[in-house]
Amino acid sequence: MPTPADVITAxxxxxxxxxxxxxxxxxxxxxxxxxxxxxxxxxxxxxAKKFVSLSLDGVECLLDDNRYEVRMAxxxxxxxxxxxxxxxxxxxxxxxxxxxxxxxxxxxxxxVDRAAPHVIGEHLVGRDRSILDQLARSDDPHxxxxxxxxxxxxxxxxxxxxTFRIAATLADDTDDYVQKAIGSWVREAGKRDEAALVAxxxxxxxxxxxxxxxxxxxLLPEEIKRRIRHR
Length: 231
Known about the structure:
Helix content: 55-70%
Order of helices and strands: HHHHHHHHHHHHHHH
């Protein structure tokens, strides 16, 4: 059974001091205690996959580490575990619980984007989804981003109502990374239901920042874009 120390040793071996500044550009969590080792994500993810059998206690140990790449490895291990078809309901519930209980350590946009769709969204397929509405009202912008990003699990099944509902709750959010998530995820939902996307943008045009509307409407016909812009 692998240990957290095994994961950290592998990351340390892959670290390149010359890459510290490059990797640091991706961390925007606002935590001054977070350190960067200099391991690019294309190196982090294969290391995480190698240690996919790490226990959840071990994953939580990695989440407590101050290093960005160590926490990303923890998140990626959770994601790889959640993608396993053999995962039983109890294991999926445990991953879901760990993600939510330690969201304080998932304090960057890419932690959320890596794990929320499979760890949170897939667990909620066929279940009550009110937890997403609770997260959307959180004071923590990363929890609010999780509320929306998790809905990708539903979007890919053609279910878009949750995405548009959560996005409407967040329409006037002041956090830039929440707004970026709105633009990306409602655009994705619009691939399944263009009329729902147009209705969402029309109803929330006065609340959404212009750049969010532009991102969300990117794939719409030009005539519809103009109508939304000049509403």
